[in-house]
Amino acid sequence: MRIAVCRYGAGNVRSVELAFRRLGAEVVAADAPADVLDAGLAVLPGVGSAGSAMDGLRGRGLDEALRERAAAGRPVLGICLGLQIALDESEEDGGVAGLGLVPGRAVRLRTERIPRIGWAPVEPGGDAFWFAHSYAAETPAATATSEGLVAVVESGAFTGVQFHPEKSGAAGARWLERCLSRA
Amino acid sequence: MPLPRLIPCLDVADGRVVKGVRFRELRDVGDPVELGAAYSDAGADELVFLDVAATIESRGSAVEVAARVAEQVSIPFTVGGGIRSVADAAAVLEAGADKISVNSAALARPELIGELARTLGSQAVVVAIDTENGRVHSHSATRDAERDTVAWARECEARGAGELLVTSIDRDGTRSGYDLELLGALRDAVSLPVIASGGAGGAEHVAAALEVSQAALLASILHERPARLVTLRDELRSLGVPLRDAA
User: pTM for the complete prediction?
Assistant: First the structure.
């Protein structure tokens, strides 16, 4: 299966590509709508801020391509900021409209230390994954949590993770493998 | 809170892991990718690669090292040393690093911290602070030593830093324990995660640092031996430190 990793100026694209290649997948870096539409799985990575990430998607027409995919029931995986901008809105950067692939919004963390950086267990399952974030999703579509924060979101064809499976060692590789087998 | 983190630090010059006393008489002790992968297998939570040569030629090799490490290692890693601009930092992150660390360049021009944070996100920006007797120490400019460590830490946070890597120079290599008083003051002064560095001699020192800080940098205590990380993790567990199960 071919995987399109969105390259839009706000992602650790190479780390995500390498993680999927380790699992034997064929990966392309996608910066055009056609690449995103054609692939078996589209991945929206993301680090940085919600405002510049949305600008990067819009500037390349990837926002519409991702909406079209999700509406057609074809799988999309959002990672970290890629999950947050898939929601209706984010309160980062003074308020940013998201892709609306999943109901909900991204809100500033109220944890003791911000950013929340490090390995933390995800329930159900209990495996620890690596997180690095200052915002988190508030959504009715959460299917797993970490210390009370939304860790995994599933809604139709969209799956989002707040942690970084591509940087979460053996546990992350297992998670990506399951993701591939479902896509 | 996420679990306490153990972060082996590898000093790199011209693409090789080196060991030396105060940056002199550098000795080649291995390949950064091989050693990094071995630490990852031994249970490291993250890795730090510090370019101790930090020349212009070496900066290109830092990007190359990041690219090679990313191919073999699937845990987060930071690259520091010689990063002076957003472009330097972006090149390292594009190669597959997760964070960059800045030290002298941020002291010389504190606006750099905000520029990095706005472009790369705070979570990718580590400010390394070398400190001695409560004052910031810089290799390059003596007037920077005028800064108070806690005040500089607060300024770094206000400017958008995502983490602080705090090395007590007077403890570094002494194996007499981390500077817990300073780390406690920083815990109270900022809400950023703090990586403690300098002074680790044994597991009890690391455990004490992890009581007040979110992570411990491990350098001379490991002696470039990943097997030592395995035993250290066991010792820390028996002291009640909740480390992640890396299997």
Answer: 0.96
